[in-house]
Design brief:
The chain is an alpha/beta fold. Helices cover 26% and strands 12% of the residues. The protein has one domain (3-14, 88-315): Rossmann fold.
Length: 316
């Protein structure tokens, strides 16, 4: 059977896992993806293929071509909503072979990834949001019911890129012994996609940020979870270097980059409160011009648009 490989150009480590048949643009994806809120029957087995790790000198992501590194500050002009690569189809196909649920996503992040702030209203029903001119997003909202309001095992207040690998932070009521928060979340929820929204708390750990983000992306791909990597609104590091790293890693691994930083640039105070890190709040009323001056309404709208873009690309 074909295999999906991802290798780090920095570490020279390639992760390879056996997958089902490789998909191309003409390959059909299960029709459940195109239906609102389908019922998914999960395989009874919890077993997953064992990945092998072999040294390599090149980067190899599924179906991708090697792209040149981003230029200085080039990340700032990358689109808010990503152009989706065929790589995501192959990661997604691997996830199906591992038993992942095609209509689920996880959140990997800090307090800003908890349902009270991030996307939770879209599991609560139309009384809690208004799409305005964005009615086309109702399909993706219905398709992923149950993920929006779910509290992730890999998203907690204070989390940085290292925290998701710390046994100390694993929920022992749901996680196995010696299981990290990230591994636990993926095992329990079996997501097809994951929003990776980290970086604000890494300003004090910049020396390990790239290494840990690589590990998150590689582990996600190994588990057949499409990582949707997000830039952050703040610039606590002062030179934008953490966002530059996030964007470069998305480029190297050929995975979707949600450039949220760009989305908040037109907002008052760039969508930041006085502490220059927390986001300004507004309800998810996308037809209310005042609400759309807030960073949170903008974040939830562009997150939905990003998930919709990835979902529709795979559904084609």
């Amino acid at each position: 059977m074909p295999s999906v490989s991802v290798a780090s150009p920095q570490t020279g480590i390639k992760v390879t896992a056996t997958t089902g048949p490789t998909q191309d643009s003409s390959t059909e994806v299960p029709s459940t993806l195109a239906l609102p809120a389908p019922t998914i029957t999960q395989p009874a087995s919890e077993d997953r293929p064992t990945a092998s790790i072999t040294p390599t000198g090149t980067i190899s992501t599924p179906g991708s071509t090697i792209l040149p590194p981003l230029g200085t500050n080039e990340w700032q002009s990358l689109p808010v909503i990503p152009q989706v690569s065929p790589t995501v189809r192959e990661i997604f196909a691997q996830g199906l072979s591992l038993g992942n649920n095609p209509n689920t996503f996880s959140k990997v992040g800090d307090c800003g990834s908890t349902p009270a702030w991030f996307l939770g209203d879209f599991d609560r029903g139309p009384r809690f949001y208004s799409l305005g001119e964005h009615t086309g997003l109702e399909g993706v909202i219905q398709a992923f019911q149950g993920s929006y309001g779910r509290t992730s095992l890999a998203a907690k207040s204070g989390f940085n890129a290292s925290s998701v690998f710390s046994l100390l932070w694993a929920d022992r009521t749901q996680c196995n012994a010696n299981e990290t928060p990230l591994a636990c979340e993926y095992r329990v929820h079996k997501p097809a996609f994951a929003f990776i929204t980290l970086g604000s708390n890494d300003v004090y750990h910049q020396d390990t940020f790239e290494q840990q983000m690589r590990a998150i992306i590689e582990f996600s791909i190994e588990q057949g979870v499409v990582p949707i990597v997000s830039t952050k609104a703040d610039n606590l590091e002062g030179d934008g270097s953490l966002n530059a790293t996030i964007a470069q890693l998305a480029r190297e691994y050929d995975v979707p980059l949600w450039n949220y930083w760009l989305a908040v640039q037109p907002l008052p105070d760039f969508g930041l409160q006085e502490d220059q890190v927390h986001l300004t709040w507004g309800p998810n009323q996308f037809d209310d011009p005042q609400a759309m001056k807030s960073a949170w309404a903008t974040r939830n709208l562009t997150a939905l648009q990003t998930l919709d873009a990835v979902w529709r690309f795979i559904s084609q």
